[in-house]
Design brief:
The protein is mostly helical and about 150 residues long. Helix content is about 80%, strand content about 0%. The radius of gyration is 22 Å and the shape is elongated.
Length: about 150
């Protein structure tokens, strides 16, 4: 009978766990960028939106403010939902709602549907943003600094 040496760690390439962590960081960072960048992109597009949809000056502000109100108003609720139902699940749900609302807003034929889509985007962002930040802190624990030589 021949003795078989126990298999050691595979050092042929980066570990699967390392790839998953990098992918998780990329996805979370991309979602956070989407949430934050949304207000800026909308402000830049306001003149084109006003021309294409015939939005009045008074209602133009609601296109921006509807997102901000929904996002800011539901942010604490989104964090609590992440604590109750799971951060990963709320991040996924929030990102899906945000993405679908973005599609709906992009295809909106009138200002009412666009404003509704912006509110829905704010709801999705309020679910995704706090969970994303919590996932960062739980997935990537703080490292202690190296001792000075």
């Amino acid at each position: 009978m021949t003795a078989v040496a126990p298999a050691g760690p595979d050092t042929s390439g980066p570990s699967s766990g390392g790839r998953h962590l990098r992918l998780a960081l990329f996805v979370i960072a991309a979602a956070q960028l989407m949430v934050v960048l949304d207000a800026t992109i909308t402000n830049i597009a306001l003149p084109a939106i006003q021309t294409d949809l015939g939005v009045s000056d008074a209602n133009l502000a609601w296109i921006v403010n509807s997102y901000a109100l929904a996002f800011g108003g539901l942010l604490l609720l989104g964090g609590k939902a992440g604590d109750l139902f799971g951060r990963r699940k709320m991040f996924q749900v929030g990102t899906a709602v945000f993405t679908l609302a973005s599609l709906l807003g992009g295809l909106a034929p009138n200002e009412s549907l666009l404003i509704g889509a912006r509110v829905l985007q704010g709801v999705g962002a309020a679910l995704a943003a706090p969970s994303a930040l919590a996932l960062i802190t739980t997935t990537f624990p703080a490292r202690s600094p190296a001792p000075a030589a």
